[in-house]
Structure formats: structure tokens, C-alpha cells
Amino acid sequence: MKIIEVYQCDPLVDVQGGGVKYLQMLTQELRKRTDVEKIIFLGQGKNYKKSKNFEFIPVVTEKCSYVMFAIKLFRFALNRRMLQGSVVHVHRLYFGLPFSILKWWNGCRIVCTLHGRTFEIFKEKEHGFKLHASLFIFKIIEKISIWLTDFLVPVSPEVVSSFDAKYKNFESKNRTKMRILTSMVDVSKFSSKDSIEKDKSFCFVGRLSDVKDIPFLIRLAKNHKLFFETNNVHINVYGDGERKAELENAILSEGVENILILKGEKNINEIDHIFNESLATIICSKHEAGPTVLIESLACGTPVISNDIGEVRSVLDAGGLGFLVEKDTESYLSAMSAVLEGYKFSKKNADILINSRSSKFISNQYMKIFRSVLVSK
Question: How far apart are CA 4 and CA 40, in angstroms?
């Protein structure tokens, strides 16, 4: 089988973002398989790379808009020799459009993983007439992309619900060509380590972007400053992003720089240590599909405190894995207090969860989907 992966990254380079981690793990597992003849990755990077059954081809050399990246994909969608009989696996619906429009010519099949709600970043940047006009056009493109895609893979029920709210009867119309495959964890890089002592701190791991809602953590630190100072605890924030300077200023102006500490971006090996040494991982996003850090933290034996986003509720329902809380500072404070008093983490329930979230398990499910779309052509 020949698989073409498509996304704006280089899977051989470690960068921030749950989506990129997802692709790295999936690509790594697919490369190990004897039934995968070749993997071609169409992405973003400066250099062409080739090694055994893997080939990386830069579509663009530097960061560009999603629209421009999608347009540049048309050149590859015309390459019948490369695509004939292959599965093109994209990670944004409109990245699949060039291939699906021309699949009568190139002979490929298109599978799209839906990692979250669409257009959210665009909504943050644009307003007024330009926003409404662009969203109208984008929705038309997205509808066509959904219709022409051979198989859809949402990463959580929340993703399905978000599309169902946007497009009437989305779930019922696409039920026969859709399957939820949840986020995964690289068990070789994230695991519980008894040798690492727990620090008297909580951690937040994620990009410093609008969706992660770091201002909520600032309010948490400000509203309950006495709690943090009395208990001598703090929250370490690991990550980088477009809102870094703004957040640094806000933390200083609110006088909580000793409680909420920006630690910067860390590599994947350091993140494993961070989860292991923290009392709990805090998630407070406005919305998420996964999120990836939920599973990574639990793999390290560290409970999670989170609002009801993505698959968090279904994961924490097993019990002993953390706290599902309301999105207010008092609820988070209550959960943090319970952790400080001594929370009994369920390693048994965590192990059951991780066994069904390993990169090997998820890649096996993808291979079943890839085979089915090739057989159905």
C-alpha cells in the first residue's frame, strides 16, 4: 500500500501542537509496517528527504496560509504516477479538495482526519464583512470537501457535534463513511516514573494561543492569590505562541508572576519529566478536540483538572484520573485543593485507557480504514 500524508509540517522535526505530534506518531508507526510499501509526506520544509520507505516532499519551504498551501497541492494532485492506487490522508478538509476533485484522473482515495472545529483561528483574526464573506466561501469549499472525501475520521465526538451544528444532519449523512479514532500517545516517550519526585506545583502544557485561554489562569491566580501563597504552590506554564508578550504583560500587571510562571517551550523528553513531577495537569481551553496533553499526562500517572471540552468527560468518567470542573476559578481551586490533600490516582484505569490509545493501536485502525476505501473504489 502507498500512503500520502498531507499537512503543513515536517514530521521529522519536533514542534509544538497536538496535531503535529499526532502526525509524527502515526507516520512513525506506518513506516514500521511491512504492508506499507511507501509513505510520501507532502508538507512544509526546506529540504527534500528520503529514507527507505519514507519520502518527504516540501510543498512550501516556509509558513504560508492554509489557502495558499491547498492551492499549491493541485500540482501534486495532477501527478497520476505518484497517486494511482494510493490513499491520500489529509488533516484539513480543504487540503483534500485538490486530490478529490481530480481523483477521476489520479486514481487515489482520500481520507481526512478532523482534528477539531474549523475556521476558529480565522475568526480570531478577522471581523466584520471580510469575516462573513470569507466564511461563506469557506463553508462552500468545506461542504464540497466533505462530499468528495471518501472517509472521515473525527478525533472525538465533540468534533462530530461541532460539524453537526454547522451543517444540518452532518452525522447522519456521513455515518457510513465516518469513524471516530481518538487521540493517541507515544508510550515510548510518555510513562509514569516513580524515580521522579512530585514537585509542589501544577502544570499547563500547550501553545500560548487564544483557544488555550491562559487569561483564565491569570484570573485563577489573581482571585485566589492567598491560597497559592499560603500553600506555597504555583502553576508552571510550558509553551510558546503568538500571545506570549501579551500574557507576560498581563501576568506582571496583575502581580501574579510568582504564582503563574511562563517556562517557555520544551522538547518532548522534557515534557515527560514535567508531567511526572507535577501534582496535576491543568486544561482550561475554550474548546478542544482531544486534547493530546490529557492522554500524555495520564500516561505519566498525573491526574488532570479540566473543563468539559472534547473527549475529557468520556475519559475522566472511568474514575481516578482527575477532575471534570466548571469553567470558573472556584471549581478549579476546589479540584486543586483536593489534589493537595492527597488524590488517589487509578493506575489501573489509566493503563486500560493507554492500551487503546497507543500509536500502534491507532495506526492499526487507520490501516483498516485505508484498506476499506481502496477496496470500495
Answer: 5
- Give the bridge partners for 203, in sequence order: 236, 281
Partners of 112 in the β-ladder = 90, 152
CA distance 25 to 363: 9
Per-residue pLDDT tens digits for 309-366: 888 998 999 999 999 999 999 999 999 999 999 999 999 999 999 988 888 999 999 9
Residue 309's contacts (CB-CB under 8 Å, 6 or more residues apart) are 158, 283, 285, 286, 287, 288, 291
Q: Is the pTM of this model over 0.70?
A: yes
Using only C-alpha atoms, the chain has a radius of gyration, in whole angstroms, of 21
The DSSP 8-state label assigned to residue 71 in this structure reads H
Which DSSP string do the residues of 33-51 spell out, in sequence order?
-TT--EEEEEEE-SS-EEE
Classify 8 as helix, strand or coil: coil
Are 282 and 203 in contact, with CB atoms under 8 Å apart? yes
Read off the amino acid at residue 256.
V
